[in-house]
TrEMBL record:
CDD domains: MFS_MMR_MDR_like. It is a multi-pass membrane protein. Keywords: Antibiotic resistance, Cell membrane, Membrane, Transmembrane, Transmembrane helix, Transport. This is EmrB/QacA subfamily drug resistance transporter. It comes from Streptomyces griseomycini. PANTHER family: BLR6921 PROTEIN, MAJOR FACILITATOR SUPERFAMILY MULTIDRUG TRANSPORTER MFSC. GO terms for molecular function: transmembrane transporter activity. GO terms for biological process: response to antibiotic. Its main location: membrane. One of its GO terms (cellular component) is plasma membrane. It holds the Pfam family MFS_1.
Length: 490
């Protein structure tokens, strides 16, 4: 439970601040040009340091890293809530990212090493998968409520009680198994190359969203990222104690998990963005009402993860949950391509969000569990960090790529139709219709991305068949045995 609270806090933070951003910008006098750094400072620190954070958890111990990450995240949140100028705000967000990068892989790796029994593991990862998938939508609700009825500063202060409860619970209750630490010397070149490479990649996508894909700095960031990450892989293949042992990512099942999860997150982040804009700008919903409109998706995710995924994980191969799960989510996305200005929430958005939630929850749960199964305990931190890295990079790509597609479709629609609008009301109608056209064009791409994610899951992930072996371990030890759960007919 305490690990789940901590994970919820980290996932919430990715969206809760977005709702509060307009109010914070006005209070602190942040310029339009600089406001993106409230989001970007967090994303760069979090995405860039995840692998390092996972390795620190393996080195220091997951429980110690977990508690330290919670304490630092709470302190950074207090600093953000008390911010008096933009520099203080940007610094607080960067610090949240730093401690989040320590906290997130420590939380997932604690689950991986603590829950080895098939049924208990299924329950634990069912809850974790629901939070990983639905926490962002919960952030929209909480952010809207706090901003509208209290003050934007509470979107930061709310993290403090979460962190205190989770840290106290972890300190007194969580018992990390002995002998799972990786005490090898730290791979400093790997840390530097991976951090700079991931920061350049995330910043490239962030900049592409605001400055365009052909911007010289955007292109430079992508080139630098490619060079740094290739150098990182070459370094990891040669050093004795690599930051990210290549055996963790080259194993077929884990590679398939990281890739399909990253793609699914691309689609999800784009959807959160477009539905939020659609409900508030086109339909005129308040922030709180917009947040509550996402409740069916959260309910679907919780059901898919804790009921469908948890009950079936010990009975069927993970790919038979992941593949169909992504396809059900794609069906929900497909419904949203029919959005119009006057679309009914009950008739269109509600069933679409239920399908999305059910599909994503069902797929996320076995994916989160499988990504850390069969890994040597000393590698569980970096294996967990790779899950978070694929999600973080996927989120950055989703926001930038799908937003670009939507903006292009919107501009094209306006150019083709604005000439026939003679009155001001007709012009406003064209503008609204153009926005909806942009959203649906981007959602079509999201449908395709989810279908590809399903295909990857069905073809690459071949572990966990009932009575067989699961993910191949990174050693020849019996790590795989913990996952092979035979079906027992009573």
């Amino acid at each position: 439970m305490f690990i789940a609270i901590a994970q919820l806090m980290v996932v919430l933070d990715a969206t809760i601040v977005n709702i509060a951003l307009p109010s914070a910008q006005q209070d602190l006098g942040i310029s339009d040009g600089n406001r993106q750094w409230v989001v970007t400072a967090y994303a760069l620190a979090f995405g860039g340091l995840l692998l390092f954070g996972g390795r620190i958890a393996d080195l220091w111990g997951r429980k110690r890293a977990f508690v330290l990450g919670l304490g630092g995240f709470a302190a950074a949140s207090a600093l953000g809530g008390a911010a008096t100028n933009e520099a203080m705000m940007f610094g607080a967000r960067a610090l949240q990212g730093v401690f989040g990068a320590l906290l997130a892989p420590a939380a997932l790796s604690l689950l991986a090493v603590m829950f080895t029994d098939g049924k208990e593991r299924a329950k634990a990862f069912g809850i974790y998968g629901a939070i990983a998938g639905g926490g962002g939508a919960v952030g929209l609700i909480l952010g809207g409520f706090l901003t509208e009825y209290l003050d934007w500063r509470w979107t930061f202060f709310v993290n403090i009680p979460f962190a205190v409860v989770a840290a106290a619970g972890a300190y007194f209750v969580v018992r990390e198994p002995e002998g799972g630490r990786n005490r090898s010397p730290l791979d400093v070149p790997g840390v530097v190359l991976s951090t700079l490479g991931l920061v350049a990649l995330v910043y490239g996508f962030t900049r592409a969203e605001s400055d365009g894909w052909s911007d010289s700095v955007t292109v430079g960031m992508f080139v630098a990222s490619a060079v740094l990450l290739v150098a990182f892989v070459l370094t990891e293949a040669k050093v004795k104690a690599p930051l990210l042992p290549l055996r963790v990512v080259t194993e077929r099942n884990r590679g398939g998990i990281y890739l399909s999860l990253g793609l699914a997150i691309i689609a999800m982040f784009g959807l959160f963005l477009f539905l939020t804009y659609y409900l508030q700008i086109v339909k005129g919903y308040s922030p709180v009402r917009t947040g509550f409109a996402f409740l069916p998706m959260i309910a679907g995710m919780i059901t898919g993860s804790t009921q469908i995924g948890t009950r079936l994980m010990t009975r069927v191969a993970p790919r038979l949950l992941m593949g169909p799960g992504f396809l059900v989510a794609a069906l929900g996305m497909l419904l949203l391509t029919r959005m119009e200005i006057d679309s009914s929430y009950t008739a269109l958005l509600l069933p679409a969000m239920l399908l999305l939630g059910l599909g994503m929850g069902t797929a996320f749960m076995p994916a989160m569990s499988l990504a850390t199964q069969g890994v040597e305990p000393r590698d569980s931190g970096v294996a967990s960090a790779m899950v978070n890295t694929s999600q973080q990079v996927g989120g950055a790509i989703g926001t930038a790529l799908l937003n670009t597609i939507a903006a292009s479709a919107t501009t094209s629609y306006v150019a083709d139709h604005i000439g026939g609008a003679t009155s001001r009301s007709q012009q406003q109608l064209v503008q609204l219709q153009a926005q909806v056209e942009g959203y649906t064009s981007a959602i079509w791409f999201a449908v395709g991305i989810l279908v590809v994610a399903a295909a990857i899951a069905l073809t690459l992930v071949n572990a966990g068949r009932p009575g067989g072996t699961a993910v191949a371990s990174s050693s020849d030890e019996t790590a795989g045995e913990e996952v092979a759960v035979p079906v027992v007919v009573h």
